[in-house]
Write a structure and sequence with these properties.
The protein is an alpha+beta fold and about 325 residues long. It folds into two domains: about 150 residues, tt1808, chain A, CATH 3.90.1570; about 90 residues, no CATH class. The chain contains eleven helices and twelve strands. It has a six-stranded mixed β-sheet with strand order 1-4-5-6-7-8. The chain has a two-stranded antiparallel sheet with strand order 2-3. A two-stranded antiparallel ribbon has the order 9-12. Strand 4 and strand 5 form a beta hairpin. Helix 1 crosses helix 4. The longest helix is centred in the middle third of the chain and has 27 residues.
């Protein structure tokens, strides 16, 4: 049997390029026919004009009301369904919510964003326009007239926000965890540390994040390596070229400053960390070394180069070398 959510989703799919006037009309119908609110009783209040200061102002696209208790329940702000989320859409919705002292608001554009104001702090969750998003059916159940409760919606948003935050923290930890240390701990009750180190020298350990698609940018953290396309490892190449460029003053002071910046190092070299740091206190992130412990011409250099992205690093480094040292091939800095 086709669920209410599937019906709504199919209707929206057919109108994803429709103008906002059409979307407005559709959602007034949806809240009446699917969610059970009465247009005759004024429970669907479109484009209400209220006084703000000395002028009248048209505010939210739809305000859903409780006609029995004569009070507003939540706001719905509508955009074209193929519009990606923008902060100004959110800010507009939140300003309406605060103006009307409402705790619940819904922004509908390329997805559904449910906002809950708790102590004036906005919390939100996102529901995709797709049938396999379990939150879609939950969205319908939460906002239909029968059984609607502001407190229930707030509880749902906060609980799912908590789960999302905790999942994000776990993923971040996984991307930075040093699995070799975990393995050493596993064997520590049975073997001496020097024996374990000798055994582990022939192994590399990775946390493999399953990608949704081939990434445009190299993600943080390690992944399993395929065979290197070159005889020289990416790490050895980096150490060699950095040593030469610094020793022979081929990097300007401005470039050295830029290589201390994480965003610049990510964009130009695909790194998750700055290429250079100056202080020994900065070479560990969450107790794990992210830099070689021996300085190269006065700097600690990032060691986090993952073999799965060898070919992409190779291209990024060549592009960067061509900019900072145009004759790098003649100088013997090409990869061996």
């Amino acid at each position: 049997m086709v669920t209410k959510w599937e019906q709504i989703r199919s209707l929206m799919k057919l109108n994803e390029s429709a103008k906002e006037e059409r979307i407005q009309w559709l959602f007034e119908r949806v809240f009446a026919e699917s969610f059970g609110y009465s247009q005759l009783s004024g429970e669907i209040d479109p484009h209400r004009s209220i006084r703000v200061g000395s002028t009248d102002r048209v505010i939210p696209d739809i305000i859903i009301r409780d006609s029995y208790e004569n009070k507003d329940l939540f706001i719905v702000e509508l955009k074209q369904l193929n519009y990606p989320f923008e902060n100004r859409f959110r800010d507009q919705l939140l300003s309406y919510m605060r103006l009307l002292s409402l705790k619940i608001g819904v922004l509908i554009c390329d997805a559904i964003y449910i906002y809950a104001l708790v102590d004036d702090t906005p919390n939100y969750i996102k529901t995709e326009w797709k049938n396999d998003d379990s939150r879609g059916e939950t969205f319908f159940e939460l906002f239909k007239k029968e059984g609607f409760s502001v407190e229930k919606v707030i509880k749902f948003v906060l609980e799912n926000k908590r789960i999302e935050d905790e999942v994000s923290r776990i993923k971040t930890e996984l991307e930075q965890i040093d699995l070799k240390e975990v393995v050493k701990l596993y064997f520590s009750d049975s073997f001496q540390e020097d024996v374990i180190d000798l055994a582990l020298n022939d192994f590399e350990f990775y946390v493999n994040k399953i990608p949704d698609k081939i990434p445009d940018k190299i993600p943080d953290g390690p992944t399993p390596p395929p065979p290197s396309p070159s005889g020289e490892t990416i790490q050895n190449w980096v150490r060699r070229i950095v040593s030469y460029l610094l020793k022979n003053h081929k990097l300007t002071s401005q470039e050295i400053i830029r290589l201390h910046d994480r965003d610049y190092s990510r964009d130009k070299l695909g790194l998750s960390y700055p290429l250079f740091v100056d202080s020994e206190t900065k070479i560990k992130i969450k107790t794990h070394n992210r830099y070689w412990t021996d300085k190269i011409e006065g700097f600690y250099v990032c060691s986090q180069w993952w073999k799965e992205y060898d070919s992409k690093y190779d291209q990024l480094i060549r592009n960067w070398l061509g900019r900072v040292c145009a004759n790098f091939k003649e100088l013997g800095l090409d990869r061996r």
